[in-house]
From TrEMBL:
GO terms for molecular function: formyltetrahydrofolate deformylase activity. It comes from Sphingorhabdus contaminans. Residues 9-91 form the ACT domain. The active site is at D230. Catalyzes the hydrolysis of 10-formyltetrahydrofolate (formyl-FH4) to formate and tetrahydrofolate (FH4). The lineage of its organism: Bacteria, Pseudomonadati, Pseudomonadota, Alphaproteobacteria, Sphingomonadales. It holds the Pfam family Formyl_trans_N. Signal peptide: none annotated. The gene is purU. Pathway: Purine metabolism; IMP biosynthesis via de novo pathway; formate from 10-formyl-5,6,7,8-tetrahydrofolate: step 1/1. GO terms for biological process: 'de novo' IMP biosynthetic process; one-carbon metabolic process. Belongs to the PurU family. Keywords: Hydrolase, One-carbon metabolism, Purine biosynthesis. This is Formyltetrahydrofolate deformylase.
Length: 286
């Protein structure tokens, strides 16, 4: 879904008013850049305007040079904005517990270049996936969590994030709850995946209880992590239909497939800078 020929992505949010699109386009053209793709959305309920522009630029264009030339427009329209260089892959840390379906899917999609990211490390509270990390040549960090050492281990995690210059943390079925303090420090940089039964069937063995209840769909939700457990801004969701003849094992298999697919989709949208926060909701430019 990355645009062929695009070098940068410009994201803009501001109070909606006339002339924004024209001013942005004129500024881009004045820098000898070309618009490859442009999407915009005006939220009538909040009066906010959102815009994503993918652009191709001269070879010597840099983020700093574009920023300097774009500042007059940004100032005039009071834009909240950021320019992203698509030529630089985002650096991602993957965190996992014992279920490896999402981890394996992410590693495969990364190796086949379907996810434009560099995996800096795999972090887990178990040793289950160390051999897989070693096979991929990715650093593995074991951080077992107990109530007594949780804050100490989170401090180590933050140090690793800084040391590895991590842009994105992916919770690929990481079954530990991050502290409120850690969530705030990493705001907008952590994506989680969970089954879509919530707020029903919380806790252990959700698929077993869903089977006993006779649910007709299983699904998954990918969202940004906030201090409100599993209630951060939703990036994407999906479901699969359950048949009366499906067993518990069938539900689990369907659920894991859906979780893997939804998490990968959310990560790709984030990597391509297609997601913008709008309060507790998201604007997703596909």
């Amino acid at each position: 879904m990355v645009q062929t020929g695009a070098d940068f992505v410009l994201l803009i949010a501001c109070e909606d008013r006339k002339g924004i699109v024209a001013a942005v386009a004129n500024s881009i053209a004045s820098q000898d850049c070309n618009i490859i793709e442009s999407s915009q959305y005006g939220d009538a309920s909040t009066g906010r305007f959102f815009m994503r522009v993918a652009i191709s630029c001269p070879e010597d264009m840099t983020s700093e040079r574009f920023t300097s030339a774009f500042l007059p427009v940004a100032t005039a329209f009071r834009l909240d904005w950021r320019i992203y260089d698509l030529r630089k892959k985002l650096r991602a840390m993957i965190m996992v517990s014992q279920g490896g379906h999402c981890l394996n899917d992410l590693l495969y999609r990364t190796s086949t270049k379907r996810l434009p990211m560099e995996v800096t490390s795999i972090v887990s509270n178990h040793m289950t996936w160390k051999r897989r990390a070693d096979h991929e040549g990715i650093n593995f960090h074991h951080l077992p969590i107990t109530p007594e050492n949780k804050l100490e281990q989170e401090a180590k995690l933050l140090a690793m994030v800084e040391e590895q210059q991590v842009d994105l943390i992916i919770l690929a079925r990481y079954m530990q709850v991050l502290s409120d303090q850690l969530c705030r420090k990493l705001d907008g940089r952590v994506i989680n995946i969970h089954h879509s039964f919530l707020p029903g069937f919380k806790g252990a063995k959700p698929y077993h209880r869903a089977y006993e209840r006779g649910v007709k769909m299983v699904g998954a939700t990918a969202h940004y992590v906030t201090p409100d457990l599993d209630e951060g801004p939703i990036i994407t969701q999906d479901v699969s239909v359950v048949d009366h003849a499906d067993t518990v094992e069938d539900l689990i298999a369907q659920g894991q497939d859906t979780e893997s697919r939804v998490l990968a989709r959310a990560v790709k949208l984030h990597l391509e800078h297609r997601v913008m926060l709008n309060g507790n909701r998201t604007i997703v430019f596909k």
